[in-house]
Amino acid sequence: MSSLVKSELFKLRKDRIFWTLVIVLIVAAVSYPLLVFFVLKVQSVSVKELYASVALEGVNSYIVKFVPCILAGFFISSEYSIGTMKSIGASGNSRIRIYFAKLMVFSFGAVIISLTFPIVMAAVGTIFYGFNDMPGLDYIVQTVGLTILYALAFASIMALAAIILTDSGKTIGFLILFFSLFDTILYTLSQRFTLIETIYNYSAFRLFLDISKFNLGNGALLKLLLVPIITFIIFGLIGSFVFQRKEIQ
């Protein structure tokens, strides 16, 4: 298992798409405070608002759900078309180990993508505006931890789609449509059906919107912690089940 993980990590380090996405996010995170400071001439900005409202609640809510979709298409699905998946399947390792090694490394890449924008923006914001209304360390640790968990949850869904579709273009297109529409469809149905309302309220899609909130109660925080963990486990098991029975050509 460790050799499989090392192999996947090596591929991730060499993946140009992954590093392109990370660099683009770093440039975007740096550009926003520069724009506010030099172009808009705003000399005083709350770092708390910059981190919580702009980075987490605003931009990163889209980054976490959409940008790793591109990585899923190229890091997982493309390996079918170029024959890499067939070679890995014939390596003698069990398909469960192969799938979970790939899922673990892809999820690691998704976490890096999901943390890049808010962390870089907060760091650049403190450079220009000091520690003006800086959020507490406990809030930063909490939001970073929750972002990691929800990035893992969504990554498990993306990996499942990538394994099923086996084509980078189809995977990226499907996942972008899925994450664009599924939340809205589920919310609309929840307004009419009690069961779906319960499912929606306890789904990763709904709870993800709450990770930037301040002063969460113990009950709400526990729910925010458990739901993405359970989601990752469920979709990870489904993905391994599908991969075991999938014909690799």
TrEMBL record:
Sequence intervals crossing the membrane: 21-42, 62-82, 103-131, 143-165, 172-190, 220-243
Glycoprotein recorded as keyword: no
Protein name: ABC transporter permease
This protein's UniProt keywords: Membrane, Transmembrane, Transmembrane helix
Highest classification ranks of the organism: Bacteria, Bacillati, Bacillota, Bacilli, Bacillales
Organism: Neobacillus rhizosphaerae
Coiled-coil segments: none
Record carries keyword Protein biosynthesis: no
Domain of life: Bacteria
Pfam families: ABC2_membrane_4
